[in-house]
Amino acid sequence: MQHLLSLKDYSKSQVEQILALAKDLKANPDKYSDALKGKSVITLFEKPSLRTRVTLDIGINRLGGHAVYLDSQNGAMGSRESVQDFAANLSRWAHAIVARVYDHQTLVEMSEYAKVPVINSLCNLYHPCQALADFMTIAEHHDDLSKVHLAYVGDGNNVTNSLLLLGAILGATVTSVCPRGRNVDAQVLKEAEALAALSGGKVQVADSLEGLTDIDVLYTDTWVSMGDDTPLEQVIEVFMPYQINQAMLDSTGATQVLHCQPAHREMEITSEVMDGPASIILDQAENRMHVQNAVLLTLINRDMH
Q1: What is the mean pLDDT of the chain?
Q2: Residue 193 covered by a domain
Q3: 149 & 253 share domain
Q4: Catalytic annotation on 260?
Q5: Is the N or the C terminus of the chain less surrounded, counting Cβ atoms within 10 Å?
Q6: Active-site residue among 51, 62, 95, 130?
Q7: Active site (annotated) includes residue 284
Q8: How many CB atoms lie within 10 A of CB 75?
């Protein structure tokens, strides 16, 4: 468990340890104010970011560490300098590399040559820190995650992939409901099904909202991912039936709503729901910081031993 590239190599107990540490970091921040004293963490961004960048910078600072922000002003990784050299050099100075990249392969290559932990803060296939924050937030309302039914509705993407994998590891039930042709990666679904078989969890995909009942938590994300130039009217036509609104809450029975943001209000979610009593979206955004700090402490401390 030296790196965090997806979540599929993590055991249930490893994930539970990270979530327990995140919970303690949130409840007792003073206890950890020197936990990363003298440590530096590279936060590398090929893509724009609000929550990830701010939660990493402030989070690392809260632990007494130093965050070094690198944007990709030189173009994608590997063009000015090979990923191999990049990773090898950074490993000589920093104690961890957190990277938000376009292509998962960049992270794989980086982890091969880095001598310090590499943490995926988003790529085209996975968003593991987001999924950890999501399940931390759900756990604040549900004592037993194995009894939780989470339904993701909208566009199958890196977030959906990670929710299926993590839900499967934790033994939850996760249903992904996306328009035909827009569901999750078939390979990821297969991996999630195998993990669910081990934990007693359940993962399923559908393209219809019919029969979506007894849901605890509803989750959505933007319909148009960064860099996608599909005309908006086409997007609305395909996805509008999947909008999270009060009617969907009523019909599914969901008591909590999540959205990893940025949100396009009145598109994938209505303001009524986003600002309403079921929304735990800002808790979810805050918990990104606590979970990322827990991941950093877990991996850096393991690396130091």
Answers
A1: 95
A2: yes
A3: yes
A4: yes
A5: C
A6: 130
A7: no
A8: 9
Whether residue 57 sits in one domain with residue 152: no
Confirm whether 132 is domain-assigned. no
- CA-CA-CA-CA dihedral for 298, 164, 246, 210, to nearest 10: -170
Q: Tell me the CATH number at 91.
A: 3.40.50.1370
What residues are paired with 152 via a beta bridge?
176, 219
Same domain, 118 and 248: no
Cis peptide leading into residue 231 (ω within 30°) = no
Domain containing 188: what range?
141-279
Catalytic, out of 95, 256, 260, 292: 260
Note if 288 is an active site residue: yes
- Residue owning tokens 């598109």: 267
Catalytic residue among 100, 149, 259, 290: 100
H helices then E strands: how many in the chain? 11, 9
The yes-or-no verdict on residue 305 having pLDDT over 50 is no
Candidate list 127, 142, 149, 290, residue with the active-site label: 127
Is 62 marked active-site?
no
Name residue 64's amino acid. Answer: G
Q: What is the mean pLDDT of residues 263-286?
A: 97
Per-residue pLDDT tens digits for 157-200: 999 999 999 999 999 999 999 999 999 989 999 999 999 999 99
Q: Examine the residue annotation and report whether 130 is marked as an active-site residue of this protein.
A: yes
Quick: pLDDT tens for 104-147: 999 999 999 999 999 999 999 999 999 999 999 999 999 999 99
**Residue 35 domain-assigned (yes or no):** yes
Are 298 and 206 part of one and the same domain? no
Catalytic residue among 216, 221, 243, 292: 221
Domain-embedded: residue 32: yes
| 146 and 117 belong to one structural domain | no
